[in-house]
Amino acid sequence: MCGIAGIVAKDGRSVDPAELARMSAAIAHRGPDDQGAAAWSPEGGVTHAPHCAALPTDARIGLAHRRLSIIDTGPGGHQPMATPDGRHVLITNGEIYNYLELRRELEAEGTVFASQSDTEVLLIALCRWGVARTLPRLTGMFAFAFLDTVAGTLTLARDPFGIKPLMWALRGGDLAFASEPGALLELTGLSRAVEPQALYDYLRFGLTDRGERTLFREIHHLPPASFAVIDLDRVAAPAPETYWRPRTDVTSGITFDEAARELRRLFMDSVALHLRADVPVGAALSGGIDSSAVVCAMREIEGQDLRLHTFSFTAPGDRHDEAHWADMAGRAARATIHKTTSSGAALSESLDGLIRIQGEPFGSTSIFAQSRVYALVKDAGIKVTLDGQGADEILAGYVPFLAARLAGMLRRGEVMRAARFLCAATDQAGPLGMLARAARFILPTGLQGIARRLVGEDLVPDWMDGRWLAARGVAARAPQQPKGGRVLVDELAESLQSRVLPALLRYQDRNSMSYAVESRVPFLIPELADFVYSLPEECLISGRGETKSVFRAAMRGLVPDAILDRRDKIGFITPQDAWLRESGGWLRTLIDSDAARAVPALDHGVLARRVDALMTDGGPIPQQVWLAANLIRWSEIHQVDFAA
User: Phi and psi dihedrals of 262, rounded to 5?
Assistant: First the structure.
């Protein structure tokens, strides 16, 4: 796990080493163990340097790397890494978990390796097999830049789920890329203008990290499961090619019991791969089914040899506190249990630093709680953790997915079955709300507004300035529901690729890397996702409304039954209302600040009155209050331009 950055200058220009050095410094927290740099020019070839400032000033390409040493922690894993002939140079962030298997294949073809690192395996695989043939063979999380000086190309690539970030920007004809937006903001002259549609999507629906768009107009994501080849003679915006999509069009004829057995095998194999490291490995544990399964699988695979440490956030006295469940899972796995907690005062004190680390606004205070967990991990001397991220999007774990399951029944005309399902699932979701949400999957787009009004949704609420948004061409629309034949599976794939998981992975990456911790997610491998999406929908959500039905069955005998039988898990919840009220003075001051008035997408007067009433009356604080407050502070810290 590392941080990468680079600049590709257009023909006739050169890379400024000082500018690249600023980019590298901005991601230094991602790799405190080592750093390196490399440059290339047609005349001078490849030059390596211990840091960016030592690079030549006439290079067409500059590459910077910050290393967190996990596999082959010695000099054998140093980057940038080049082939002996200097033709190919690689910088990468992440891990290739199946590197040992790939190494054996390459050795059978005659390769002699100089190190034990997964980076060298990736480099040689790219040289030997080519980018397009190598990417589908990788099991891991990665973002890399691969230079071929003979072909005159630089290839950027990301793992299938976008676990590891990679962003790019064009500035004056030069292309720059980095692991975090903060590095790109070090580019001289790069606009900090806001992207209005992304701004609306965040404020209204809490959505970020969708596709290539960020809240900075000039900064873009390279999408997950894609690669882009840059022609060094014609530097331009990357044109990504997709190399993997989850299969949602195939339904397996497998039985429920067969599915449970195969899912258990796939999951256990993935956890075993994710345990490969040359440093201590622990686990982030919430007490839900997914993280508990990971922890229990780690113990099952490693036996007594593993010194297993778990790390959990607790909220004593809060109705959503899950310390009891986390303790149960930790004891079952015979782990050393570490716990942390926090407060509203700590949130207000830490918010600015967290906003800087995240780079873009974030959806809730659970991201703050998650950062506290990784601080605990670092204090314990653990450099790698495993957790259950991604399981909800693959295995249908969120309560809103019940509406998609219901919609599938209604679309197939299974009215009586749908009625029984609706009655059985009402302990998790209200029937009217579930019906209204199910209608979105069935109704034509023009009628979906009726369904939204039934659940009290307004596309442009009164605390937003609709005129400013309309003047900038913003489409005030709700996220479109998938219209495919398998409603639930199509909705899961949408959440996996676009609507939910990309933002969660960004939060986790920034939080963990800010403490130099590598966070691994064993649910996120293509083989597991493709298998689950091929199953009949009743394997995912049963006719009784039980989410993750087949996974619960697959984990029997490994995870405590009390955890597997839970129906009250609703995600990583923090006492957000209590925290915001505890730090209410901070919130009121922020909403009434010049920074708030400088955000033209907000109707400041309405928002200020709403917050003042909430702080006085004591009712539930709408999520939009947090979204607006977070955006206001983000825009001030990053000097965002709303006028451009």
Answer: -70, -40
